[in-house]
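Sequence in, structure out. Go.
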Amino acid sequence: MFQIVHQASELLLKGTANELDRARSSIAEGDYTRAVKLMDRGFRMLDRAINLLDVLETLTPYEYHLIRAGLGHGSGLDSPGFLALLHLAPRLGQGFFDQLDKAAIALEELYRRSAEFLSLHEVAEKLLDFDERVQLFRFHHMNLAHRIIGGDVLGTTGRPVDILRQRQEHVLYKELWEVRNEITARVNAKTKMDDQGHGRSG
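Output:
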C-alpha cells in the first residue's frame, strides 16, 4: 500500500508539472484561455495526489516503523514530483508577471479592472489556486507525519518535524496574497470601513 500510494502520487505530480509547464508556455504566448484550461487539468491531478495522503493515514505508528527502517533519509516533501512543482512555480509566476508588465498595469489595477483584463485576471486566480494546493499538500503531509511518528521527534531526514511547519509558512506568490491587503486598504479608505474584520467598527 505504501509503495502504491507513493508511485501513484509521483505519476500524478509529474502529470501536474507537465500540464503547468505547458500552461507556462501558453501564458508566454498570450493564450490565457488555454493556460487556464491546462492549469485546471493539472489541478485535478494534484488534488488526487493530495487525497492519496488519506490512505497513508490508515497506517498505525508501529506499522509505519516497520517500513521506515528501509526508507533511508527520504521525505515525502523531497519527492521528485513535488520538487518539480516547486522548481516550476517561479517560472510559471514570472510568465504571468511578464504579461502584466506587457499590459502596463499593476497587480491591484488588474483586479480593479478585471472585467477589462478578464483572461489575465483568471490566470492570476489560477496561480493562487496552485499556491493554495501546494500549501494544502504540505499541511496534509505535516499532519500525516505528526499523526504517525509524532511532532517532537526526528523525521527520516534527521531534521525535526517542525521543519514541515516552517515550510508551510512559505507561499509561492507573495504578491498575489499581499495585493488583497492593498485592495482592502483602498476600499476601507474610500468607504471609511474599519481595517479589522468584515464589517464596520462598533
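Check: The chain has one domain: 2-189. The domain at 2-189 is CATH 1.20.58.480 (Methane Monooxygenase Hydroxylase; Chain G, domain 1).
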